[in-house]
């Protein structure tokens, strides 16, 4: 695809993270919340929101054993998407070669160069 502003080539990589909300490690998320300046009662409130969650499966009137949830943010909640975005907010810092754009669990990386061979060499 030709970049309209300066006639460069652009290559885009479009990622959709599978089960992204389910993979958020609670301890890493808490550390990141602290890094962003959340402390005290607010941090403890968020910690209690994530911890001590349990789940089980029910099928044909049979319930499995209860299992503690140590990863993931509650989907369908207001805080779930916010926690996920905070969790992956530093992802662009890991990719210095491309231009990274993040929206929820969709990540796009764009590479710009004078020609296709430069893009291949960059990637």
List the main descriptive attributes of the protein structure presented here.
123 residues, alpha+beta, 24% strand, two-stranded antiparallel sheet, three-stranded antiparallel β-sheet
Tell me what the structure shows:
The chain has 123 residues and is of the alpha+beta class. The chain has one domain. It is built from 4 helices and 7 strands; from the N terminus they run βααββββαββα. A hairpin with a 2-residue loop joins β6 and β7. α1 packs across α3. It is elongated. The two termini are 16 Å apart. 7% of the residues are buried. The model has no long low-confidence stretch (mean pLDDT 85). One of its GO terms (biological process) is DNA biosynthetic process. This is Reverse transcriptase domain-containing protein. InterPro entries: DNA/RNA_pol_sf, RT_dom. Pfam families: RVT_1.
CA-CA gap between termini: 16 Å
Helix/sheet category: alpha+beta
What is the number of helices? 4
> What sequence of helices (H) and strands (E) makes up the elements?
EHHEEEEHEEH
As for the number of domains, it is: 1
* Overall pLDDT score: 85
How many strands, which pairing sense, and closed or not: the largest β-sheet?
Answer: 3 strands, antiparallel
Q: Which word captures the global form?
A: elongated
Structural Rg: 20 Å
Question: Strand order of the main beta sheet, please?
Answer: 1-7-6
Unreliable sequence segments: none
- Strands, count: 7
Classify the helix fraction into a percent range.
Answer: 25-40%
Strand content: 15-25%
């Amino acid at each position: 695809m030709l970049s309209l502003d300066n006639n460069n080539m652009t290559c885009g990589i479009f990622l959709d993270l599978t089960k992204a909300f389910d993979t958020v490690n609670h301890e890493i998320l808490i550390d990141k919340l602290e890094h962003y300046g959340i402390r005290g009662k607010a941090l403890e409130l968020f910690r209690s929101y994530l911890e001590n969650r349990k789940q089980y499966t029910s099928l044909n009137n049979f319930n499995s054993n209860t299992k503690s949830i140590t990863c993931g943010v509650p989907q369908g909640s207001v805080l779930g998407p916010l926690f996920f975005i905070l969790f992956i907010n530093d992802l662009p810092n890991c990719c210095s070669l491309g231009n990274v754009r993040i929206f929820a669990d969709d990540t796009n990386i764009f590479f710009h160069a004078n020609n296709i061979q430069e893009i291949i060499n960059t990637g």
